[in-house]
Sequence to fold (237 residues):
Amino acid sequence: MTSAAAGRSEAGSVPERRIVVMLGAPGAGKGTQAKRLSERLGLAHVSTGQLFREAVSDKSALGDQIRPYLASGSLVPDDVTIGVLIERIGRPDARAGAILDGFPRTPAQARSLDKILAAQGDAVTAALYVEVSPDELLLRLTGRRICTLDDQHVYHNVSRPPEKVGICDVDGAELIQREDDKAETVRSRLELQLPPMYEVIDYYAEAGVLSAVRGDQPVEAVTEDLLRALASVSRAS
Ligand code: AP5
Fold:
């Protein structure tokens, strides 16, 4: 039995802090959905990918260390990623809980998360897997455009075009393609990141907190399915 499962039965009560893990391949729509869920549920949206991109654009020491991993589509080493996550979920806006977008991505990260939460009397509430076919992933990633001022303003050339080509609807800033969304890096990301993701899915299935949702539907329909899945699987609903 995993610690997540053990935490559930030993606690015998509903943990107050809601920690929802969003799982899915690169481009599955985790970021889009995590943002919507965090607004609907009043939980912090914690994206390790976003924290890493910020570090790179700030040219911080962390940014210098992780730049090659992002550029090649590989995973950032577990110790670095776990450190970033601990700092982020310790911030005041995550006190009531968080939607973890893109973490954990390896079994070692999943085990660490369980330990970190258990030390605070918490546990993973639910793990939601957004499932999308490989062909659709490629289309989503290569067509994605993001705002240069805020990379949480996300568009797509076909499925979510901005009102004015190349310009963010929210703040009028220029839209660009993410460095790691170039076709060649997308292929490496899928090849390198899918095998450990499947192991993490198994981990949460074993813990009894996993629910899968079809991601190849309109954004609003995916959100509604995720909310239903959360209610059915989670310890805190
Ligand atoms: P990260 O930023 O997490 O990237 P990712 O997992 O590759 O996920 P994406 O942001 O590419 O896709 P998404 O699933 O959020 O999809 P989105 O909603 O944008 O990580 C970047 C890098 O950081 C990693 O490659 C790795 O190097 C490193 N990293 C991060 N976390 C790590 C960790 N834990 N351990 C180690 N390394 C880590 O949607 C994609 C597009 O599709 C958008 O254009 C959107 O508008 C569109 N779309 C979304 N939903 C729909 C829909 N239902 N229908 C049609 N279009 C849709």
Summary: Residues 24, 26-32, 47-49, 52, 69-70, 73-76, 81, 102-105, 109, 140-141, 144, 154, 156, 159-160, 180, 189, 218-219, 222 surround BIS(adenosine)-5'-pentaphosphate (CB under 6 Å). The chain is about 50% helix and 15% strand. The mean pLDDT is 91.
